Amino acid sequence: MKLSPVIATAALFLSFASAAAFAQTMPAKPAPAKPAMGQPMTKESISKACSTQADSKGLHGAERKKFRAACKKNGGKA
């Protein structure tokens, strides 16, 4: 049994259209959860907190490196 070119083209178009419609309705990735009060901070969040504190103090170079190292050892607290 041979399909006509019109039917074959229509079937191909519908398969692409349905795939595109499905792809557009996929939910977005949820934002990473921040640690709640009382939960231990991750290494990444500790590093970010120490960098933010160093930025607010205007530290650069060796001073910044020394501050961040001490901050990370203290769990994100200066």
How would you characterize the overall build of this protein?
By secondary structure, the chain is mainly α. It has a domain of 39 residues. 62% of the residues lie in helices and 0% in strands. The protein is built from three helices and no strands. It starts with a helix and ends in a 5-residue tail after the last helix. The mean pLDDT is 78.
Compact overview of the structure:
With 78 residues, the chain is mainly α. The protein is 62% helix and 0% strand.
- Tertiary shape: rod-shaped
The whole-number mean of residue pLDDT values reads 78
Distance between the termini: 77 Å
Helix/strand-derived category reads mainly alpha
Helix segment tally = 3
- Helix and strand pattern: HHH
Strand content: under 5%
Count all strands and give the number: 0
Output the radius of gyration. 27 Å
pLDDT under 50 segments (min length 5)?
none
What attributes characterize this protein structure?
mainly alpha; 3 helices; 78 residues; 62% helix
